[in-house]
Write a structure and sequence with these properties.
The protein is an alpha+beta fold and 130 residues long. It contains two helices and six strands; from the N terminus they run E-E-E-H-E-H-E-E. The protein has helices at 48-65, 86-93, and strands spanning 3-6, 21-24, 27-33, 73-80, 103-108, 118-125.
């Protein structure tokens, strides 16, 4: 199977040697998103909740560019610089996903690019594509 690069101007452009997402067959592998605004590539710095909302908006844009939606994500990995934000992530995530929720890992880490407090990546299965 060949790889197809997924790219959209509605999400931040890659700031390194990676693609926003790569589709292989009906599976899409989404790179990690941090709270950068696509329009100016500036970080959202108005608090953790705003950062998390921006990350989910960025993920949604990449999912849509690939032909799916957040609800097509089968697995997400959430990286947090402070696990005390875990409950807030759950509350915010519930605003973007409908049941059944994707499988998920939440990982506490020391540092993220550009001083972000949260990064999320995922794997999406696009229905109806073989």
């Amino acid at each position: 199977m060949s790889k197809q690069v997924i790219s959209t101007d509605s999400a931040p452009s890659a700031i390194g040697t990676y693609s926003q997402a790569v589709k292989v067959g009906s599976t899409v592998y989404l790179s990690g998103q941090i709270p950068l605004r696509a329009e100016d590539m500036e970080m959202v710095t108005t608090g953790f909740a705003d950062e998390a909302h921006q990350v989910f908006k960025n993920l949604a844009a990449v999912c849509e560019a690939a032909g799916g939606s957040l609800n097509d994500l089968a697995k997400v990995n959430i990286y947090l610089t402070d696990l005390a934000n875990f409950a807030q992530v759950n509350e915010i995530m519930s605003q973007y996903f409908a049941k059944p929720y994707p499988a998920r890992a939440a990982i506490g880490i020391n540092q993220l690019p550009k001083g972000a407090q949260i990064e999320i990546d995922g794997v999406m299965e696009i229905p109806g594509i073989n």
